[in-house]
Structure formats: C-alpha cells, structure tokens
Design goal:
Blueprint: E1 15-19, H1 24-35, E2 39-44, H2 50-60, E3 65-69, H3 75-88, E4 94-97, H4 112-140, E5 143-148, H5 163-183, E6 188-195, H6 206-209, H7 212-218, H8 231-238, E7 249-252
Parallel strand pairs: 1-2, 1-4, 2-3, 4-5, 5-6, 6-7
Helix pairs in contact: 1-2, 1-8, 3-4, 4-5
Residues 19-20, 22-26, 44-46, 50, 71-73, 98-102, 121, 125, 148, 150, 195, 197-198, 200-203 line the site of NADP nicotinamide-adenine-dinucleotide phosphate.
Length: 259
C-alpha cells in the first residue's frame, strides 16, 4: 500500500495567498487552509477589522498569517503582496481568489460605471491576482490556484437583474480554464469553485434579503450553503488530492444546476 490517502489533504509547509480573506467565503477558506497546515497571506481591501479577525482565528490554530490591505484591481499592489508573502512566509504554492462584489440593476438601466466597476473587480481582479501568483509559482515549477466563480456563471439567477455579474462569473470560469491550459506543462493547476447561494455578508444586500426564502426553495437541498461548506472543495482543489484536476469548475450549489 504506497498511497497514504489522508496525507493527500495535508497542507503542512505550504504557503497560501487568499484574496477576499477579510469576509465570507475567502475568510473561511483562509482559516480552512491554515487548519490543514498552511501559513496564509490574507488579502482584502476592507478596513473594518475583517482581516484582523482572520489573523486571530488562524493564530488560534497555530499557523502563521499576515494581513495585506490591497485592492485586486491594482496589479502593482498584488505583485508587492506576493513578494511580501514570499519574503515573510516562504515560496508561494497555493492561491484562492475570492475577492468579488455583487450588485443588481436592470440591464437597460445599468450605468457604464456600475458595469465597469464590477467587471474590474470580478474579472480583471482575478486575472491580475492569477498573474502575480503564477509569476511566483512558475519560478518554483509548482502551484495550485482556485478562483471563486459562481453558479451564476453557469445559470441565470431567476429574479436577479445582474447581467454584468453573471457575465463576470462565466468569464472567470473560462479565463481559469484558459490559464490552466497555458500553465499545464509548467506545474500550475487552475480550477474554479462555483458556489450556489451562500450565507455571507454579500447576501445581506437589499435586493437579496427578501428573496432568500425563494432562493432556498429553488435549491434542491432547500437551503443556502454555509461558508464551512466551501472549505472541503477548496482543500481538495489546492491539495495533492486533486493532482490530476486542472481546468475544472466544481459546482458547490446544493444541486441547483441540475434543475
Ligand atoms: P463577501 O463576504 O462580501 O467577501 C468578499 C470580500 O472581498 C470582502 O471583504 C470584500 O470587501 C472583498 N473585496 C471586494 N472587492 C475587492 C477588491 N477590489 N480588492 C480586495 N478585496 C475586495 O462576499 P462572499 O459572499 O464571501 O463572496 C466571495 C466570492 O464568492 C465572490 O467572488 C462572490 O462573487 C462569490 N460567490 C458568492 C456567493 C454567495 O452566495 N455569497 C455565491 C457565489 C459566488 P468589501 O466588503 O469592501 O467589498
């Protein structure tokens, strides 16, 4: 018996970089990576203490973490963040890109600014993040990147006027597959997780709150996901457990896209 199956999920001595780590899905995944043994650079633009909370939780599980305030639309800031991660924690091997925003407006009324701001964060921000991360990982000849897309990149959410968001997430899925193929021979895997409706601060925005019951009813599992339920899929995709997976979009949606 040569394969030690539980060890496939062990992230000891791995260095991770998580964007959107000050809230919601990114925060919970950052902690999950640390619980599996990784030291984690936590990146977010929030200044409300979210990153400090993440660092506190990671310290409690005995791993190292650093907080870096950065905007993912700023390529230079991301390059600096990766350099700081490597200087303070070690060679980068894992990245999870969860920073993103959501909002809604009927397509015929949406301003150019609303469209562009969301695209800049959700698409360009993921691209710049992957670029900065891959430039480090390519030097090491090894790395695993997971981008948080959405089931909205696969289906159109009934009752939500968010054409720009849905397009950005479809873009993240296909952009990730494209980068996966560019780097497939050089040791870097790129995959996406596409969550269904998940209980995070993003879903407390005004246009969502009154629809939550409806969204739960539309979901085959009849409930929203908790952020905890994004951790296992993330650990799988960044760890050696998924060493033959690249260019995959893993739907974590309570069955939503089956109906
Ligand atoms: P969240 O709680 O709002 O967390 C997102 C974090 O990213 C926030 O701290 C946010 O800061 C940060 N962020 C936003 N723009 C940024 C930027 N330009 N630079 C750096 N950080 C930035 O939302 P979440 O629900 O965890 O969402 C995480 C990811 O999952 C997003 O990509 C989202 O589209 C995706 N997703 C969420 C759901 C869901 O139901 N919640 C479903 C499918 C996919 P601010 O608070 O300042 O914006």
């Amino acid at each position: 018996m040569s394969l030690n199956a539980p060890a496939l999920f062990d992230l000891s001595e791995r260095i991770a970089f998580v964007t959107g780590a000050g809230s919601g899905i990114g925060q919970r995944i950052a902690l999950g990576l640390a619980q599996c043994g990784a030291d984690v650079a936590c990146i977010d633009r929030r200044t409300d203490g979210g990153l400090e909370d993440t660092l506190g939780m990671i310290a409690q599980v005995g791993r190292k973490a650093i907080a870096i305030g950065a905007d993912v639309t700023d390529r230079a800031a991301l390059e600096t963040a990766v350099a700081r991660t490597e200087a303070e924690l070690g060679p980068l091997g894992i990245a999870v890109n969860a920073a993103g925003i959501a909002n809604a407006n009927p397509a015929e009324e949406m301003s150019a600014e609303q469209y562009q701001t969301l695209m800049d964060i959700n698409m360009k921000g993921v691209f710049f993040s992957c670029q900065a991360q891959a430039n480090a990982m390519l030097k090491h000849g090894k790395g695993a990147i997971v981008n948080i897309a959405s089931m909205s990149g696969v289906i159109v959410n009934r009752g939500l006027s968010q054409a720009h968001y849905n397009a950005s997430k479809a873009g993240v899925i296909h952009m990730s597959k494209s980068m996966a193929m560019e780097w497939v021979g050089r040791g870097i895997r790129v995959n996406t997780i596409s969550p269904g409706y998940t209980a995070t601060p993003m879903n407390t925005r005004p246009e969502m709150v009154h629809q939550i019951k409806e969204f739960e009813q539309q979901t085959p599992m009849q409930r929203m996901a908790s952020v905890d339920e994004m951790v296992g899929p993330a650990i799988f995709l960044v760890s050696d457990a998924s060493s033959y997976c690249t260019g995959v979009d893993l739907l974590v949606d309570g069955g939503f896209c089956c109906w």
